[in-house]
Write a structure and sequence with these properties.
InterPro entries: Flagell_FlgL, Flagellin, Flagellin_N. Helix content is 68%, strand content 3%. The chain is an all-alpha fold. It has one domain: f41 fragment of flagellin, N-terminal domain (Up-down Bundle), CATH 1.20.1330. It has a two-stranded antiparallel sheet with strand order 1-2. Helix 3 runs antiparallel to helix 5. The chain is rod-shaped.
C-alpha cells in the first residue's frame, strides 16, 4: 500500500487537531473549575448532576418554607405570651373581686379594669403578621378573627399547614377557636354539671356584667355575684390552661423546625460535596494533563514542521 504525501499530511494534521482539542479542553477545565462543562464531557456524571441539582433546589425550597414557618410560629408564641400575661392579670382581679368587704363602686372599678383587659385580649386575638394577615383566622386571613363587640369568632375552621420537609407537613398556626374558645380535656367542670362557657371574651363579658350590678343590701344578689365570680374564675383558669397547652405545642414545633434546619444544612453540605465530586475539576490531574498535552502538542508542531521541510533533493545530498 502506497502512502501518499497528502495522506501523511492529513494524518499529521488530524493528530495536531486532536492534541489541540485535548489541550484546550484541559484549559477550559482550569478556567471554569469544572471537569464537566457540557453533557458530552461525561454523560453519566452530567445526568447525575441534573438529578442532584433538582434535589438541591428542593432542599433550598424547604429551607425557605421552614424560615416562613418559624416566623409564623414564633409570632404566634409571642402574641400568646402577651395573652398569658393579660389572663393572669384578669385572674388576679377576679380573685380580688371576691373580697366581701368591697363596695359596689369598688367592684365597678374592677369591672372597668377587666373591660380594658378584655379589649386588649380581643386586639391580641386579631393580631396580624407583617403582611396584614390575621394570624388566628385560619385560612380566612383577610378578615379579623373575632368581632370586637361580641367576641364571636369569624375566622376559618382549618389551621394553616406548611410542608417543611419532604416527609413533614406541619400545622404552623392555630385558629382562634382553638386558642380562645376551647378548654383542655382536664378542664375544671361546672359544679352543677352544666355546659361551661368556653369563649374567653364571653367569660369576661359575663364577669364584667356581674361586677357592674349593685348588690349592697340584697343577699340573693350577693350570692349570685359570688357564684358568677367563681364561674368566671374557673373559666379564666381553664382558658389559661388551654393557652399554655397551645404555647407548649408551639414550643415543640419550634424545636422540631430547628432540628429540621440542622438536618437540611447537613443535607445541603452532602449534596454540595456530591456535586463537587461529579463535576468539579481535580486540579492536580488537570494541571498535569494540561502540561503534558501542551508538550505533546509542541512536539506535534515540530514533527509536522520538519516533515514539511523534507524533499527528494534534501535526501540525495
Amino acid at each position: 500500500m502506497r502512502i501518499s504525501t497528502q495522506m501523511m499530511y492529513q494524518q499529521n494534521m488530524r493528530g495536531i487537531t486532536d492534541s489541540q482539542s485535548k489541550w484546550l479542553s484541559y484549559g477550559e477545565q482550569m478556567s471554569t473549575g469544572k471537569r464537566v462543562n457540557r453533557p458530552s464531557d461525561d454523560p453519566i456524571a452530567a445526568s447525575q448532576a441534573v438529578v442532584l441539582s433538582q434535589a438541591q433546589a428542593q432542599n433550598s425550597q424547604f429551607t425557605l418554607a421552614r424560615s416562613f414557618a418559624s416566623q409564623r410560629v414564633g409570632l404566634e408564641e409571642s402574641v400568646l405570651g402577651q395573652v398569658t400575661t393579660a389572663l393572669q392579670s384578669a385572674q388576679d382581679k377576679i380573685v380580688y373581686a371576691g373580697n366581701g368587704s368591697l363596695s359596689d363602686n369598688d367592684r365597678s372599678s374592677i369591672a372597668t379594669d377587666l373591660q380594658g383587659i378584655r379589649d386588649q385580649l380581643v386586639n391580641l386575638a386579631n393580631s396580624t403578621d407583617g403582611n396584614g394577615r390575621y394570624i388566628f383566622a385560619g385560612y380566612k386571613t383577610d378578615a379579623a378573627a373575632f368581632d370586637q363587640a361580641t367576641g364571636t369568632y369569624n375566622g376559618g375552621d382549618t389551621p394553616i399547614r406548611q410542608q417543611v420537609d419532604s416527609a413533614r407537613n406541619m400545622q404552623i398556626s392555630h385558629t382562634g377557636s382553638e386558642v380562645f374558645e376551647s378548654f383542655t380535656s382536664n378542664a375544671a367542670p361546672e359544679p352543677d354539671g352544666s355546659t361551661p362557657e368556653t369563649n374567653l371574651f364571653k367569660i369576661l363579658d359575663n364577669a364584667i356584667a356581674a361586677l357592674k350590678t349593685p348588690v349592697s343590701g340584697d343577699q340573693d344578689k350577693t350570692d349570685q355575684l359570688n357564684l358568677d365570680i367563681d364561674k368566671a374564675n374557673r373559666g379564666l383558669r381553664n382558658s389559661l390552661d388551654n393557652v399554655l397547652t397551645v404555647r407548649a405545642d408551639l414550643g415543640t414545633k419550634l424545636t422540631e423546625l430547628d432540628a429540621l434546619d440542622t438536618l437540611g444544612s447537613d443535607r445541603a453540605l452532602g449534596q454540595t460535596q456530591q456535586m463537587s465530586d461529579l463535576i468539579d475539576v481535580d486540579w492536580n490531574a488537570a494541571i498535569s494533563s494540561y502540561t503534558m498535552q501542551q508538550a505533546a502538542l509542541q512536539a506535534s508542531y515540530k514533527a509536522f514542521s520538519d516533515m514539511q521541510g523534507m524533499s527528494l533533493f534534501q535526501m540525495n545530498k
